[in-house]
Amino acid sequence: MSERFSRRDFLRLMVGAGAMVSFAPALRLKADAPTSIEMDTPPTLMLHTRDRWKLDQLVRLLNEEGYTSINYAMLLSAIEGKSKLPARPVILSIDDLGASYIQPYFLDMADVIEGAGHRGVFGVVVNEAANHTPKNWARLRELSDRGWEMDSHTCTHRSLPRITTQPEMDFEIIDSVKRLEDGIGKRPVALLAPYGNVYSHHRLRVFDERLFETTSRAGVSFIVGIVEGRKINSEAKPPYYTGRIGPGDDHLSAMENLKNFQSLG
Ligand SMILES: [Zn+2]
Q: What pLDDT score does 12 carry?
């Protein structure tokens, strides 16, 4: 249980338990009313170039099972009640695309996913501004134009909770967002935390509030880690924290992980 939500969840649990004992009829009535209790985070796959061999068969399985890929902008729209998610949503995210060098494997991965009718999210390490590597940025813009969401994976891929000063935190989060916005013409919707590290106290799973404060100032709606983040609490405010899961050994384990996303992590 996370420190960020634990007290509130505990209170809700207590209220719920009390209601069950004292106001059972009211509870039944409530079950009939429209609820906005919380939303499940759509199963979210975290991919790297080393996973490129799994993609062909994975996207085929996704199509067989009726999954529709979405991105964080679509998730935000659903959270805000402006649109609905498809019946079986999935977020396909690919990390570590760099602005200083475009590793061709990333483009191959985009082609395979697109070829099966899907799109996803790139976590960009924004280690060069658009005016320094214009050819690379043209590639990033092209991916964006093809429907890929280009999100921040910071400027230098540092573990954010290990940063000790606010100017360094601002550089990794605010500058990466600004560079993406300047270079692509769209503000990223999500910050994909390097190594999934979001805790100031790892063992107790205490979130580093500086990440949330800085990401909020950057105007970015999601912080994406790995563990937890399986629900979006109805009382949560942006930036929302959501988790992800790796694919495991092959396309079969990737599909299993997606199906069991809510109970893993
Ligand atoms: Zn990374």
A: 43
